[in-house]
Amino acid sequence: MQVFQHRRDGSVNFYRLWDSYKNGFGEASGEHWIGNDHLHKLTFLGTTDLYVRLEAFSGLWYYAKYSDFKVADESDEYRLSLKAGSYEGNAVLYVPKCLFILLKMKVFQHRRDGSVNFYRQWDSYKNGFGEASGEHWIGNDNLHKLTTLGTTELYVRLEAFSGDWYYAKYGDFKVADESDGYRLSLKAGSYEGNAGDGMDNHGSTDPSGMKFSTIDRDNDNAPALCTFARQGAWWYNQCTLTNLNGIYGNGTCLTTETCNFWYLISSSYVGVKTSYIMVRRLENQFYCASCKSSK
Predict the structure, then answer these.
(1) 195 class by beta-carbon count within 10 Å (0-12 exposed, 13-18 middle, 19+ buried)
(2) What does the pLDDT profile of the chain (295 residues) look like in tens digits?
(3) Do 250 and 260 touch, CB atoms closer than 8 A?
(4) What are phi and psi of 50, to 5 degrees?
(5) In this protein, which residues make up the domain named Fibrinogen C-terminal (predicted)?
(6) Rounded to whole angstroms, how far apart are CA atoms 166 and 290?
(7) DSSP 8-state symbol, 60
(8) What is the pTM of this model?
(9) φ and ψ of 204, to 5 deg
(10) Could you give the CA distance from residue 124 to residue 216 in angstroms, rounded to a whole number?
(11) How far apart are CA 133 and CA 295, in angstroms?
(12) Domains by residue range for the chain, with CATH
C-alpha cells in the first residue's frame, strides 16, 4: 500500500501549480503529494486499487475503494480511470452528473464552547451556519432532505459539565420542508437512552409534531414567544423540556431558564457542555447531494 496523498493539519499548501503536482511536494512523514509522474508509474506496474481513508472532525472514519485504478502520463494530462461499478465503502461515490453520499450518521447540530451564536432568524436556520469542524447547524433545508431519504433515527449525544455523557434515540425521525414549517415527527414510544425522554410523551411540551420556531417566525403553541422565553430556536410547543439551541453555559441563563438544556438529565435548566444531534440512516442507500458536470 503506497500513500500518495496525506493531509492532517493544514500545514502544507495544496493550492499549487502544475509542475508542483507533477513532481510532488511535502514530506512522506507529514502532509504531502507524491507527484503525478510517480503516481502514473505506480498505477501501471500491474492491477491496482484506489483506497481512500478519511476521518471526519467528529472522529468518525470512512473509506472508499475502487478497482483498476490508473493515472495516465503527462501527455494525457494524468487522466484518471477506475473500473465502473467497483465502489466499496461507506464514504462517497462519484458517478456521471451526481455525487452520491452513503449516509450512516450525520451530525446536524454541534455545540462545545459557545463560540457560535445560535439565537438567529429563520433564514439562518434554513440555510445553516457555523463550520462542520466546530459549532454549527446544518440547515433545515438539508435536514429535511436527509430525513426523507429512507428510514432515519434521531440520535442525541450530550455531555454534562460534570463530564458525564447521556444519549437519547428516537425512531422514524422526519423533518418536513419549509412549506410545512420544517415540522418534526418521531415515532411515538420509540425513545431509548439515559438522558430522559425530552422530545415525546410529555404532552404540551413535546417538540414532536411541532413546526420550527425562530425569533422572527413564531410557530409554537404558547401565548407568548417561546423563542424569546428560551432565547433559542427549536420545535417549541408550549415551550419545551429541551432547548439545545439556547444560550450556551450555566451563567445567567440558568436562572432565566434560557440555557442549552435537556431538562430531564438533572431535572433542572442546567446547560450541557457538549451536544451532538445526529441523523442515523438505517438503510444503505445513496443520496444525490449535488449535481455536477459529467465532463
Answers:
(1) buried
(2) 899 999 999 999 999 999 999 999 999 889 999 999 999 999 998 889 999 988 888 777 788 889 999 999 999 999 999 988 788 877 754 433 333 444 467 889 999 999 999 999 999 999 999 988 889 999 999 999 989 877 899 999 999 999 999 999 999 999 999 999 999 999 999 999 999 999 986 666 788 889 999 999 999 998 888 999 999 999 999 888 999 999 999 888 998 999 999 999 999 999 999 999 999 877 544 444 443 333 2
(3) no
(4) -100, 125
(5) 1-64, 65-283
(6) 34
(7) -
(8) 0.63
(9) -70, -10
(10) 11
(11) 31
(12) 5-95 (3.90.215.10), 105-281 (3.90.215.10)
The amino acid present at 19, given as its one-letter code, is D
User: H-helix or E-strand containing 229?
Assistant: helix 226-230
Cβ-proximal residues to 19 (8 Å cutoff; 6+ apart), any chain: none
Burial 145-176 (b: 16+ CB within 10 A, else e): bbbebeebbbbbbbebeeeeebebbbbebbbb
- The whole-angstrom separation of Cα 226 and Cα 239 is 5
Distance of alpha carbon 170 from alpha carbon 208, whole angstroms: 10
Instruction: Answer yes or no: are the C-beta atoms of 30 and 11 closer than 8 Å.
Output: yes
Count of other CB atoms within 10 angstroms of residue 126: 20
Is residue 138 within 8 A of residue 144, CB to CB? The reply is no
The pLDDT score that the predictor gives to residue 208 is 82
Amino acid at 265: I
List, in order, residues 6 or more apart from 245 with CB less than 8 Å away. Answer: 109, 118, 119, 137, 232, 233, 234, 260
One-letter amino acid at 177 equals D
C-alpha span between 136 and 27 (Å, rounded): 33
For 27-180, where are the E strands, in sequence order? 32-33, 50-55, 61-66, 70-71, 80-81, 88-89, 92-95, 98-102, 105-111, 129-130, 136-137, 152-159, 165-170, 174-175
72: amino acid identity, one letter: A
